[in-house]
Amino acid sequence: MIKINFKDDLVYTSGNAIGIKYNEKVFTKLKIKANKAYIPSVKEYSWKIGK
């Protein structure tokens, strides 16, 4: 299941359908803007998504 919320220019996702593994933990609460995904609880890191 995935929950998606749109606010301003960002897409907020949660649920176990999409996750990023970082420091041996899987984070499923993400902020997506354009072609980058951010983990709100991890500052100053982003991941490129798409092509």
Description of the structure:
The protein is mostly beta strands and 51 residues long. The chain has strands at residues 2-7, 10-15, 20-22, 25-27, 30-33, 36-38, 46-48. The chain is built from no helices and seven strands. It has a five-stranded antiparallel sheet, with no helix packed on it. A two-stranded antiparallel sheet has the order 3-4. It starts with a strand and ends with a strand. The mean pLDDT is 87.
Low-confidence stretches: none
Query: Could you give the order of strands across the largest sheet?
Result: 1-2-5-6-7
Average pLDDT confidence is 87
Specify the biggest β-sheet.
5 strands, antiparallel
Could you tell me the number of beta strands? Answer: 7
Sheet/helix structural class: mainly beta
Q: How are the SSEs ordered, and which strands pair?
A:
Blueprint: E1 2-7, E2 10-15, E3 20-22, E4 25-27, E5 30-33, E6 36-38, E7 46-48
Labels describing this entry:
single chain; mainly beta; globular; two-stranded antiparallel ribbon; five-stranded antiparallel beta sheet; 7 strands; 51 residues
Q: Can you describe this structure in just a few lines?
A:
The chain has 51 residues and is mainly beta. The protein is built from no helices and 7 strands.
